[in-house]
Design goal:
This protein is mainly alpha-helical and 115 residues long. It contains five helices and no strands.
């Protein structure tokens, strides 16, 4: 059986790894062992932080809606409850955008649920 040399694959794999960790500090950008663990941990943090981003964005939407609604005599929780009672299905992302960019429309919604 002929001998198979895998040097090119080995080098390719390491080159790809070092390209992925370019810009990392200390030995993590040029030492293979450290680079491998750094890339793994970076991937794990990226995964977790994508979920955290969703969480913080939702909190920001709630703050924006609450600030606008308080100016018009509602608390956030009472406003959301009034929306549910009146079967108005507008998600928080849209309402937060309306509170910033299109106040008249959100004001119309508030007046509708006040009745």
């Amino acid at each position: 059986m002929p001998r198979v040399k895998r040097g090119t694959n080995h080098v390719k794999k390491r080159r790809k790894l070092l390209k992925a960790v370019k810009g990392y500090k200390w030995g993590r950008n040029n030492l293979i062992k450290l680079a491998r663990t750094a890339r793994t941990k970076a991937g794990a943090h990226a995964f977790v932080d994508r979920r955290k981003k969703k969480r913080t964005m939702r909190a920001l939407w709630q703050i924006k809606i609450s600030a606008f609604v308080r100016e018009h005599g509602f608390s956030y929780s009472r406003f959301i409850n009034a929306l549910k009672i009146n079967n108005i299905a507008v998600d928080r992302k849209i309402m937060a955008d309306l509170a910033v960019n299109n106040k008249e429309v959100l004001l119309a919604i508030i007046n509708k649920v006040k009745q």
